[in-house]
Amino acid sequence: MSLLDDFTRQWTSTLSGGPALLPSTLARACAGVLGVDGAGISVMSGSGIRLPLGASDDSAALAERLQFTIGEGPCFQAQQSGRPVHADAAAMSARWPALAQEHLQRTPFRFVLSLPLLRSQSSIGALDLYRRAPGAQASGVQEPAVDAEQLTAAAAPIAASITSILLGTAPQEVPVQVQVSGASWLDTPAVLSREQVWIAIGMVNVVLRLDADDALALLRAHAYAGGQTLDEVVDAVVSQRIDPASLGTGAAPEPGAQG
Question: Are residues 242 and 171 in the same domain?
Fold first, then answer.
């Protein structure tokens, strides 16, 4: 049985609870089949906001939120370039120092591989795969370092399969009862929460008279200064626990104060 066959068997046999749980089911199956420590799936919305569809666990979900908070990272680069992007801790620190500072402190992952989810010649999102730092196993045998090329080759067919599943174009061997039409998998708490970003941007726009890009940059700066994720700051602005006017003062919040 190929890895792709094993992936299909795993996610089709464990999917339950409707289309909203599909992306997380795909992420968990992907992590299990590929032997990585975490996996996450995200797509770009038509309005240019990255939407977190599903993750294999809480750490993988946090890793995505940190990339979105900083506004750069491997999943952004993979989606924009249409090519796989990988980085260990040293490479992440060199390429994206602000992201690395948060990622290496707040997640256990020390290697990431991001693969674009390709539709024709364009990318609709990314599949992120995470590994912890190599370390001694209980048997005393040292865990090998990640072979990025080998993992990329193994994961590429699975990334293509995930794209076709999300777009409702999965091959006929996928059972009809789990075929997906439309985008009903967008009705998840994570997606609905992320879509509040536009509400917060609008609130900042009205109060501080900033355009959308500058308002988003200000929200990101506030989150980074306070040691929060952008999602946490957006929730606080929308729920009126943060006054948008205060964002223009340059005063940084206490870390975690709004979370």
Answer: no
Q: Write out the two tokens for 74.
A: 């491997």
- Dihedral through CA 92, CA 97, CA 98, CA 100, nearest 10? 30
Distance CA 116, CA 71 (A): 17
Q: What is the pLDDT along the chain (259 residues), one digit of tens a residue?
A: 699 999 999 998 888 767 778 899 999 999 999 999 999 999 887 666 888 989 999 999 999 999 999 999 999 999 999 999 999 999 999 999 999 999 999 999 999 999 999 988 788 899 999 999 765 444 455 556 778 999 999 999 999 999 988 887 555 444 433 333 445 667 777 888 888 999 999 999 999 999 988 999 999 999 999 999 999 999 999 999 999 999 876 544 444 433 3
Domain that holds residue 239: 195-249
- Dihedral (CA of 178, 9, 13, 28) sign: negative
Distance of CA 137 to the CA centre of its chain: 28
Number of structural domains the chain divides into: 2
**Distance between CA atoms of 215 and 192, rounded to whole angstroms?**
20
What span, in angstroms and rounded, lies between the C-alpha atoms of 138 and 217? 45
What DSSP element (H or E) covers 189? helix 189-194
Identity of the amino acid at 168: G
In this structure, the answer to whether residues 210 and 177 fall within a common structural domain is no
Q: What are phi and psi of 250, to 5 degrees?
A: 85, 5
